[in-house]
Design brief:
The complex is a heterodimer of chains A (446) and B (447). Chain A is α/β, with parallel strands linked by helices. Chain A is built from 14 helices and eight strands. In chain A, helix 1 packs across helix 2 and helix 1 packs across helix 6. Chain A is rod-shaped and about 145 Å long. Chain B has 17 helices and eleven strands. Classes of the chains: A alpha/beta (446), B alpha/beta (447).
């Protein structure tokens, strides 16, 4: 399953909430179990949907998005108003004159410089984080959300939203988008303001500069005209600069609007579109960091549930009575007793390790033969077994088949037996009803 | 709904049937594993869904404890003219008359309900007649039997003898799978052998194999990524001290931070690998009950990890202090190479601006030094190497000696510098560095 950015952001909000208040997301409904064949990602989405059944969670998860949208609208309105009112400072209302140098310089120049700075920072340095603004955002998030000892559901949801929306991969382009949006709004406001002023008043277009002479002016206007002519807009009447007749005034006003559109609005709009496209592409490739401890814990739970375990054929036997097994006997085995190995490793030289070894019994037929032979005798004999091999019912059945009166059981080990091993053998001797005095633990001679 | 494929896990008591399932399921909580014959006395199933339907089911069965007597009993039924599966069915029908075989009858029922048997063999055992009897009983079910040779890495293992004996019995397809010393390749071979024996379920088993492979890779990737995050976070850790602050207290503070971060990573890695604190307590890793036992800043740790103690002594408490000029040449060099004056100014300002400001304001900056990062890396590689090869059935101590089975790879130094550079704010972006280090760690860990 491939997450959408919105889903991932909501999952991060859920993470922020659950990291602070694990009990808050599923107070009314139980945490959902993954359906058969669901992937971990499917289950995360299912959890998210269940969490959002809680109306409070749903509302608070969507609140930062609404806030951010309102913020953008407010930004547009404020900047447009600023642009609108800035018109007054761009033209000289008392003399009904417009200083072309000042007007173009203020609107195109400042805009051009900031656009260049943005280009240098974003393209040439190609950094993921956006320096000062990024630091500022981090400080704000920490100040208002992270450092709170007991943040509310809303604060945690906000933190998750902001951290994802302005994550390092997105930060610079998100800030770029906002910057271009603000500039575009300002320029549009300015253009509207100029339009309103030019509609209601008659202005003469003049060139006033102490340092730049007329030749410079002509060169600048010619350079600016090239692109304007290229797209089919009328060039300015260069030969008639100031105190022009009405028709020329209109041509100069059109030239100002053309310059604004060509050199301010269009580049900003393109930059805005680029930033918007990059944000969208980056969002589409944005990956949830599933190595975060929160997701690790969730994945661990998911993996446990991946296999459906159940008992099919239960043990209905009576539980064994919890009797304390006896300790092994410390009595000495009679020296005359003959030794027989029961299910012992035939590859070991038992004759060298133990006294009077007569043979090894490793199958049912041999066991029956030996039982017949020894049960007719009244001499003590020893059955030795390997202590590290745990007793099973088959072995116990074999032992039970021998005459218990003369039988000694030797549990042989070349090392200390573990407590569970000793316990298993003591239990086995009990189950075989052997005389506890005749069950001994024997260490082989190495 | 009945799964498409049902696999019974059978064998003698204490051969590791439940352990096999624990390891295949990566779940150390499945069933009951003890040093006692007949621990599992019920039949427990574990089913997995593929494409939203339960498809494959494993069934853990009680151990066959008295197969010689059972074979004799079934022989008597055969003499009455009941052959193969019919013979087994008769034994089930007459179960009330033979209470001694209660556990064995449960196994026989499963052999008649499943499509294949995984016959688990403890390779440490000599080939007693009772095991041959078991195979003879299981063969009556007339379904494929795949022997799974367990405990193959044990010193007492008689793998060759078992292989020879199984071949004599006509069981040529077998798989060596140590439930304690895990190896994903062995798990893959197990599924491939099942595919060979169950041609009609080939594609289903392939899907299971693909899923397990993807899960395993995901697990490795996540664990490596978590370690990469740890190394990065510790690499960029810094503590600013004013002239009034006590350097000793600052040192203690940053050391405690490192310890806490490493501990958090350990818990996370255990979770990723589906182990818990108790599982690791069993091993001789310097971890007990989920806590590292050797302190990262102690000389003993360096000795244990086989690192150069002389260099550690030189670095004192293993935390570097102040401005390190190591990056100065690199930073300027790299920037000059680009020929961009603006770039140079930007880089230099970013790199040294903070340090120069610190210097002017009389601040000292504590950072974790390279030796500490080396120790961290070594410990994490050691941990991953151990956990990637630890079966979920392991309930005994892993036999690890004092020195880790890994060394610091040669190209680590370069990666460490990449972390430092990015952490200082003039190298690659954090996410790129972390992903790069995670991939590198993944390559280092032998699985």
């Amino acid at each position: 399953m491939v997450f959408t950015f919105k889903q991932q952001r909501e999952l991060e909000q859920l993470r922020a909430v659950e990291s602070q208040q694990p009990e808050i997301t599923f107070p009314f409904n139980a945490e959902p179990r993954a359906a058969d064949g669901d992937t971990f990602e499917d289950w995360l989405i299912l959890r998210l949907q269940h969490a959002k059944i809680n109306r409070a969670v749903n509302i608070q998860f969507s609140q930062p998005e609404r806030f951010f949208q309102r913020f953008q609208v407010t930004l547009i309105i404020i900047l447009m108003l600023l642009g609108l009112f800035s018109t007054a400072s761009l033209i000289s209302t008392d003399q009904q004159q417009v200083n072309l140098f000042w007007l173009l310089g203020a609107l195109l120049g400042v805009n051009g410089i900031t656009l260049c700075i943005w280009l240098v920072v974003i393209v040439l340095l190609n950094r993921h984080n956006s320096g000062l603004l990024s630091g500022l955002l981090e400080w704000v998030l920490k100040r208002f959300f992270s450092h709170k000892a007991d943040p509310s559901l809303q604060q945690s949801a906000n933190l998750g939203w902001w951290q994802t929306t302005f994550s390092p991969q997105l930060q610079s382009w998100r800030f770029s988008f906002l910057t271009h949006l603000a500039w575009l709004s300002f320029l549009l406001g300015s253009m509207l303001g100029l339009f309103a002023v030019f509609m209601t008043q008659q202005y003469d277009f003049i060139w006033e500069s102490t340092l730049l002479n007329e030749h410079k002016f002509t060169a600048i206007i010619e350079n600016l005209s090239r692109a304007i002519e290229f797209v089919g807009l009328p060039p300015p009447p260069l030969e008639q600069q100031a105190y022009s007749p009405e028709s020329l005034r209109q041509q100069w006003a059109m030239f100002v609007f053309s310059c604004l559109m060509m050199y301010a609005l269009a580049p900003r709009a393109i930059a805005l579109l680029v930033a918007s496209a990059v944000v969208r592409v980056t969002q589409a490739h944005w990956k949830l960091d599933l190595s975060n401890d929160y997701y690790i814990a969730l994945r661990s739970r998911f993996n446990q549930d991946q296999w459906h375990c159940k008992i099919l054929d239960d043990d209905d036997a009576e539980p064994a009575s919890p009797t304390t097994p006896n300790a092994f006997s410390t009595q000495s085995i009679p020296k005359s007793a003959l030794w027989y190995g029961l299910e012992v490793n035939p590859e070991l030289a038992w004759g060298q390790l133990l006294p009077r070894v007569q043979g090894l019994i490793n199958d049912r037929r041999q066991a029956i033969t030996l039982q017949t032979q020894l049960n007719d005798s009244s001499e003590p004999f020893v059955l030795f077994v390997e202590g590290r091999r745990l007793p099973d019912r088959g072995l116990m059945r074999s032992i039970k088949g021998f005459n218990q009166q003369y039988l000694w059981l030797a549990i042989v080990a070349d090392d200390d037996l573990s407590a569970p091993q000793q316990h298993a053998w003591l239990k086995a001797t009990q189950r075989c009803s052997l005389n506890p005095q005749q069950c001994v633990l024997v260490r082989t001679q190495q | 709904m009945k799964p498409a494929l049902t696999i019974a896990i059978v064998g003698h008591a204490n051969t590791g049937k439940t352990s096999l399932l624990r390891t295949l399921l990566r779940n150390s909580q499945f069933g009951d594993v003890r040093d006692e014959a007949g621990t599992t006395r019920h039949v427990e199933s574990a089913a997995i869904a593929l494409d939203h339907q339960l498809q494959i089911e494993f069934r853990d069965t009680p151990g066959l404890e008295d197969s010689s007597a059972l074979r004799a009993y079934l022989g008597e039924i055969e003499q009455q003219g009941h052959r193969s599966r019919d013979c087994l069915q008769k034994s089930i029908d007459a179960a009330g008359d033979t209470p001694d075989f209660e556990q064995e009858i449960k196994v026989i029922k499963q052999t008649l309900q499943c499509q294949i048997l995984l016959y688990v063999i403890d390779c440490r055992e000599p080939i007693f007649a009772k095991y041959i009897d078991e195979i003879a009983v299981l063969r009556l079910a007339a379904i494929p039997i795949l022997p799974v040779l367990n405990f193959i890495h044990d010193q007492h293992s008689s793998l060759a003898s078992w292989k020879q004996k199984l071949a004599e019995l006509g069981l040529h397809a077998l798989v060596a799978f140590d439930t304690v010393a895990f190896d994903f390749e062995a798990e893959r071979r197990l599924y491939q052998k099942l595919q060979t024996l169950l041609e009609e379920h080939h594609s289903l088993l392939q899907r299971l194999l693909d899923k397990r492979q993807a899960d395993w890779l995901q697990l490795q990737k996540t664990a490596s990524l978590r370690i990469a995050h740890l190394l990065y976070d510790i690499g960029k850790l810094e503590l600013k001290l004013t002239s009034e602050d006590s350097p000793g207290r600052g040192l203690e503070h940053i050391q405690n931070q490192v310890r806490a971060m490493e501990q958090q990573a350990l818990t996370a890695v255990l979770h990723i690998m589906q182990f818990n604190e108790q599982d690791v307590a069993m091993s001789q890793l310097p971890v007990q009950e989920g806590n590292w036992q050797l302190d990262i800043f102690s000389a003993q740790t360096l000795k244990t990890l086989g690192l150069d103690t002389a260099s550690a002594a030189a670095t004192g408490a293993a935390v570097g202090v102040g401005i390190d000029l190591l990056f100065a040449g690199m930073s300027l060099g790299a920037a000059t190479a680009t020929g961009a004056a603006l770039g140079t100014a930007w880089h230099t300002g970013k790199r040294f601006g903070k340090n120069i400001l610190n210097k002017l304001s009389g601040h000292t900056c504590l950072r974790v030094d390279d030796t500490t990062l080396d120790i961290l890396l070594l410990r994490q590689l050691w941990l991953l190497n151990t956990l990637f090869h630890r079966g979920h059935a392991a309930n005994t101590q892993s036999r690890l000696t004092g020195k880790p089975n890994v060394t610091i790879p040669n190209d680590w130094r370069q990666n460490r510098q990449t972390i430092r550079a990015s952490a200082a704010g003039w190298g690659m972006a954090e996410s790129d560095v972390v992903n790069h280090i995670a991939q590198w760690i993944s390559d280092q860990v032998r699985t």
